[in-house]
Amino acid sequence: QAMRYAPLSGRPLIALPREDQNAANPSNEQRGNLLRSREDYLAWRAGVPADQIKTEALEGRPVSAASRSAPHQQQQQMQTQQQQKQQHQLQQQQQQPNKKISPLLVRPSSNVTCAEQLFGLGTNSFFSMEAVTRFLNSLKSTDRQLVYEFVILLDHDEDVAAKAAVATWLLAQNPQFRPLLTELQAVERLVRATVQHPRSAELQSAACGTLKLLCVGPHEGAAETKRRLTFELDAIGVATTALRGHANDAEVQREALGLLRALASSAPRGARLVLDAGGVALCLESLKSHLSDEAVGEAVCGVLKALRCAPKGTAAAANQGGSSALAVVEAVVTTRLQDECETGLKFCEDLLALPSSSGGDVASRTASQTILGLITIFLEGKGVQGRGIRLIPAISQRLRRFSGHLRIQTLGCQIFIQLTTGGMAQEEAAARIAKTDCLTRVCQAMRDLPCNMHLQQLGLEVLLNVVKVNNEHKTAGFKAGGIAVTITAMRSYSKNIKIQELGINCLLHLSDTVGRSANCAKLGGLDLVVSALARHMKQGRVAE
Predict the structure, then answer these.
(1) C-alpha angle with apex 205: 199 to 210, nearest 5 degrees?
(2) SS3 category, 288
(3) Distance separating alpha carbons of residues 462 and 449, to the nearest angstrom
(4) Count H helices, E strands: the chain?
(5) What are phi and psi of 5, to 5 degrees?
(6) Minimal CA–CA distance to 256: which of 212, 289, 215, 197?
(7) Host H or E run for residue 49
(8) Structure confidence at residue 482 as a pLDDT band (50, 70, 90)
(9) Closest-CA residue to 473 (of 522, 429, 526, 430)
(10) pLDDT single digits (tens) 285-319
(11) Are 410 and 459 spatial neighbours (Cβ–Cβ below 8 Å)?
(12) What is the pLDDT of residues 150-179, one digit of tens each?
């Protein structure tokens, strides 16, 4: 006789064995065998005599109301008693707020029982992560005992620890549980579980995701958790080991990269440890293995942005009276990042030279978007414009292929601005952009996406940086339709001071001949200039 209880709900699931699966009309003896487990169960729960229940069932009459309602009433009584017990424990904890939960307060077999009920050990047919999720979402921050029983499961074998890590990650999604998880030593248990079970992809991804949530955010103790993960528990080593051990698992890559980003963000010493552990190389390898995964690409860009911003945070801390050691860390990180920028641009150049991936246009679009995002990060380094200029033809090709896609067009314009602003090679970059069809691509993007103000501003800035160099560039800008798109942008965003300033400067350089000036006046450029002057007389540099 197989009689089990569903996880979490406590309701009985009775599986009655059938002697003959094909028998349409079982005999009375077989029918009595089938009903024996049910009558025994109802008699045990309701206290009704077994003979009475058996007689009612065999005669086809409904079971008495007492036998039907008694299990539900008893279940409600048990839940009420459990709630009263939890309230009593909560009152004791409030009287002693500094007292932590001791393992002795938990029954020795309670964690095993929790594992069996929560994850259905030995009965995989009853395992449902949706049921677990509903149950965890119903918890409150005052259910300390239940949360402790989930955390203690992290010390079990690989299967239980993996499911417990997922449950802990679900709890960490709610900010009110994060201080409690930290207090119950979930951080130490997760790190220990990742070291003990390195082959479990489920555990590695859930553990990295939980550690990331526990060390970021406004909850209490986040900064201290981040410090301990960085310098005491070697969480960077945990993330890099997961990246190397599960290179083909996109979920592990995304969560591990997210943990590296959290540990390096606004933390110069953490950024240095990430660089020492080969974090940039691991990011590039992860991107190369998952070019068609947009989430992995965003995670890679997030790590590299965090590394780029780390020296700025160090400089700010040093200006506010920080120790001289911070300045040393800032110099080391800046030097290391400079070398990484050269390597990263070479990596992007090789990727842009590859043929389209087998995933079709969607995969190629995702890959192009990620690669262009990496280029914008690597071009922030000093002295790398020379290598960036070599990427202009490939970038123009991507802009032509994915015309109308906002993200790719925006990233392309940002790259052109970085190449033509500052540095020794800005004139060379402007000449290369003018000789190719990049200005045509930029003007086409402004025509395709007229409702995006940010793109319009970026396009005007690219146009201005190129046409202000010499007359040949002005001719290229005019042939690309620069006057028309400039007037359209100024008319659409007449209240935006920056767009008005850039538009007037573009018209100044593009209307350098009589024919071009007449064309500008015919399209309404003169009226827009006068209107901008009247609207923004005392703001910005419009009047100038």
Answers:
(1) 130
(2) helix
(3) 16
(4) 29, 2
(5) -120, 135
(6) 212
(7) none
(8) very high
(9) 430
(10) 999 999 888 899 999 999 999 888 766 654 444 44
(11) no
(12) 788 888 888 888 888 888 888 888 888 899
* Residues 53, 30 contacting (CB under 8 angstroms): no
12 - beta bridge partners?
5
Report phi then psi at 351, rounded to 5. -70, -40
Sign (positive or negative) of CA dihedral 229, 230, 233, 236: positive
Environment class of residue 98 by beta-carbon count within 10 Å: exposed (0-12), middle (13-18) or buried (19+)? exposed
Distance CA(256)–CA(239), nearest Å, equals: 5
Contact 74, 82 (CB under 8 A): no
Q: d(Cα 78, Cα 156) in Å, to the nearest integer?
A: 29
Q: Is the pTM of this model over 0.85?
A: no
382, exposed or middle or buried, with CB in 10 Å at 0-12, 13-18, 19+?
exposed
The H-or-E segment that residue 255 falls in is: helix 250-264
Q: Are 238 and 209 in contact (CB under 8 A)?
A: no
**Average per-residue pLDDT for the chain:** 77
pLDDT in tens, 206-247: 999 999 999 988 888 899 999 999 999 999 999 999 999 999
Residue percentage of the chain with pLDDT more than 90: 44
| Cα–Cα nearest to 403, from 412, 416, 394, 414 | 412
Q: How many CB atoms lie within 10 A of CB 174?
A: 16
Task: Give, for 3, the enclosing helix (H) or strand (E).
Answer: strand 2-5
200 φψ region: left (φ > 0), alpha (ψ -120 to 50), beta (else)? beta
C-alpha 169/C-alpha 189 separation (Å) is 13
State the pLDDT confidence band at 407, using cuts at 50, 70 and 90: very high
Gap between the Cα atoms of 370 and 294, Å rounded: 7
CB within 8 Å of 224: residues ≥ 6 apart: none
pLDDT at residue 13, as a whole number: 37
Report which of residues 448 and 422 the model is more confident about.
Answer: 448
DSSP one-letter string for 322-341: --HHHHHHHHHHHHHHHHHH
Q: How many Cβ atoms from other residues are within 10 Å of residue 19's Cβ?
A: 11
Angle at 509 between CA 503 and CA 511, to 5 degrees: 95
Tell the residue number behind the tokens 């002795």, with chain if given.
Answer: 104
Reduce the DSSP state of residue 320 to 3 states and report it.
coil
Of 7 and 81, which is predicted with more confidence?
81
Which amino acid is residue 504, in one-letter code?
Answer: I
Cα gap 208→210, rounded to integer Å: 5
Alpha carbon of 196 to those of 123, 166, 445: distances in Å?
A: 25, 16, 52
Alpha carbon 347 to its chain centroid, in Å, reads 24
| Res. 412 pLDDT band, cuts 50 70 90 | very high
Distance of alpha carbon 461 from alpha carbon 456, whole angstroms: 9
181 near 223, Cβ under 8 Å? no
